[in-house]
Amino acid sequence: MAVNFFTDNKDLQFALKHLDLKEVVALREDNYKYAKDFDFAPENLDDALDNYKRVLTVVGEVAGDRIEPRSRKVDEEGPHFEDGVVTYHPLTQENMEDLRNAGVMGVMLPHRFGGLNFPNTIYTMMTEMVSRADASLQNLFGLQDISETISEFGNEEQKQKYLPRFATGEYDGSMDLTEPDSGSDLQSVRLRATQDPKTGQWYLNGMKRFITNGCAKIHLVLARSEENTSDGRGLSMFICEKCPQLLVRRIEHKLGIHGVATCELQYNNVPAELCGMRKRGLTRYVMSLMNGARVAISGQAIGIAEAAFRAARKYASEREQFKKSIDKFPAIFEMLTKMKLKVMAARALLYETTKIVDLRTGYIHLMEHTPANELTDTIRQNDRLYSKLAAILTPMSKALSTETANQVAYDSIQIHGGTGFMHDFDAERYYRDARITNIYEGTTQLQHVAAIGGVIQRSLDPLTDKYAALPYDGKLLRLKHILDEMRKKQLDAVKYVSDKKDSVYHDLMARCLVEMETYIFVGFLMLRDALKDAAREDSAERYILDAVSEFDCRYAVVKSGDYTLIDKHRSIIDY
Question: In total, how many domains does the chain have?
Fold first, then answer.
């Protein structure tokens, strides 16, 4: 029976319907001026939303009807590696061909290069559905950020050369950042970029490791272009193509995400092109990419969590013990309820985040392409506002989504019981696939580090104030008062930590403060959504009431004020 991963997901459809993308789409389509020159560019907001829904329905059908049934065999057999050549599984190749035929290989690329020019929000919905079908395939489909980077920072010749081929799916890409000893410390990247003084040609020499789809045709490479440097200011971004000098030394044997090749690469004088300006590879380009990377993995994680929840619910409704299905037992339906709430909460935060990322992208574009004498105070203010909001929301979203995926996948196996531990059921695959999401593109711990500055500076207050001022009444008003009390405690906790003037203590408290901020902000998102659909009131109530105890636990830790806490940690570790 045909399954559509968009039309069967009421929560995803709710997000599309109620996100209010009016400003996002107007910025993306330059107030719909593109409609004059491109047949498929929307003429107005309704036209754009209809197109988004139509394409999401197509991707939902491909994901549910074709990709998902192939996923188990892809997981079991994976790609083949021999004599330096990676060959993807035939079913993976079929999956990619189906997505190419659906016309979604250049989702965010501009119309003039054959792209759909869709917002990141809509692209993330696609990545969620693809991930629900096969999380490893998302690591191929989700690499469209490579073409986006060239579109944003490359010169016109590079755009004309590469982007149309990305839009058709002729080109695929990889982001070559990590090295054997650098991990998340990208400032220490050592791969060398040298320029021939006579021809101006750049060449790359060195190693990269843990490169997703490292067998790609097009590579974006972070390399050290400046002699006698050892920090991020000596790094630039380069584009290179697959060639004999670029060797795939091996592919990794991984716990999960088996369908995509994760490669170790050796560069032996590989010809390359500088992308953008020298010395801005890390400080500008990679940091800019992090917003997109974080939401992409968040979408992947929620897709896995959705799949794991649905598998658990289906199994529980069919598995009988003591003459009734196990979903009738309080312990089980309590678990299912919490799983569902976690997915809904993470999804609410994700699509609020993608909307902010889209607005940030739009206003950055305006800042860079509007003559100085035409820049208004509103444009400048919005540029600053959405940059600050994106800087805190993207790490918060990744932290919540990926930790949710791990917990929901864990609980899915628990509901399956012993059968969930067996390879016969998909629950164990979801568990394996989920585990990497809170590691790559920055661990959860690094997300807390990335978000804590915004928590201390109260970056979310304007947005939280906006949702707190909505016209709640009855149950929703009572819940709003609970969140108001949590906000007061949060301000107290932030001041308490800030007053300590101890950087190690600040870092130790970062997780608590970021998670506390997340509970409050997501609580207001759940209330906002309940205003739009009364059927969501129970979900909002349960989320907020559950959040209170978790919040208060972290608040107590922060307010304990135990300066010896750090020494106690070390004492326990060293015992």
Answer: 4
